[in-house]
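Fold this sequence, please.
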Amino acid sequence: MNDVSQPSGIQPKSVVSGRVGRVAHVRQRLAKHIIIPVLIAIGFILVVYVLSASIIAVTHLNEHLQERLSTITRSMDQLFALESDKLGAIAESIIINSSLAEAFVHKDRAALLQNSASLFAALRENHQVSHFYYHNLDGTNFLRVHHPQRFGDAIDRHTLARARQSGKVASGIELGVLGTYTLRVVKPWHYRGNMMGYVEVGMDINHLFEKLHQITGNALAVVIEKQYLTRAQWHQGNAIFGRDSDWDRIPGKVLLAVFGDFAEHTLQFSAARQGGSKWITGGGTVYRAIAINDIQRRTVGQLHIALDESASRAKTIDIISYISLTVFVSLLLLILILRAAANRVEGRLSAAIAEKSDFERRVKYDQMTSVYNQQEFYRLLDIEVERAVRQQSPLSVILLDIDFFKAVNDEHGHQIGDCVLRGLAVELLTYARDGDHLARYGGEEFTVILPNTALRDACEIAERWRSVVAQRVFRCDGQPVNITISLGVANYPLHTDAPKALLQHADMAMYKAKRRGRNRVEVYTSR
């Protein structure tokens, strides 16, 4: 038996507990929807302020650094351009030499070498020319003046390929297999109106980096990407050119040359942490890496530059530190002020939520049983019928009434009768499913909306309720009370698609159950 003088029905679950839960979570909701967003907004604004102020603070430093870097870059480009023009002029002077042209036309390698050797010696002495070639039209080498023992091989360098393709002068930096940067100029060779081959002159450009160091006064380091080299060829180049560089010293790169007092450990830091083109700092020196691109526009290495900016750097750090401290203190004060205001808002919001919850309970719920009232039932019925029609899903409605309830009131009094109504609401809710809507329709009548429920399932649910109620003994103020219920079932789409008609059909089925003896379930029929 069950004492239902203090039923736990829907009110503790949906109204009282919901209200208490809302009030209990006011602080969480306030933090989630007001405090945290405001703090995030303030923090964002302050962070933007710090960043903006920091950017302003370092503007002078950046401008100064950029100006120095631009000067170095322009100087390097000018040096390369001047040397390229000079090589172009040298190539032009070669192809207009008729004795060289005649030797090449007749493929007289010995005569061509004899006439070119002294020229090459002068070019190497006075203009740092280190490479001097004659190429056939098919791209094979006819003569290397700087290395005459080797000839007849196919030349696959991009400068020659571009000159052959365009028929014009091609120039640019190319990385040699031995790890040297070579500035090359290839010029098509026309003689007596006929195209007969190509002249190529080039120079290793380390002397240009040394000249750049002398012009700017900055320490420089030249590195090459390992992906374009092999260890064996690199060591071979070191032996030939007298370089002293460890292949494994810098991850992914090799050091070609250093000019001035350059801290080599910054190259390792740059490769491992920052990448070849990022700013890195050490002490008062700022390091910058400029990409070295070949004629194919590949980044084959970098020129690292050391720039002394200790004084400007220290001043900038002081400014940023001061701004950061000021912003931190301001943010702390804002948090304290916001927290005090939030506490006041919290109290008002808690009261408002409690008032709103009580209002909703009065508007939506029956005051005695705490299930939905008739007005809310009609609203939910319209919604569920519309959804069922739209989704083409079944919907059932149950209308039930306590049998001989007047006798309960007459025998035990209305107070006990009210207790029975509350107890019945508890039992119905206990066996209801999630999504079902239970309402007190009036007096001792209850209605239940069963969404997505076919007629057969609705009848099973109604029968379960009938059986449970018939076996239950309600104990109110110590008095046992037994009741039974009669239930009527109507269904969409079997009976109607109109909400009010659906309820009327359920009502007709319920009265049929009463006429047939009560304590039973009946389904609406048109007859």
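The first helix runs from residue 10 to 24. The chain is about 55% helix and 20% strand.
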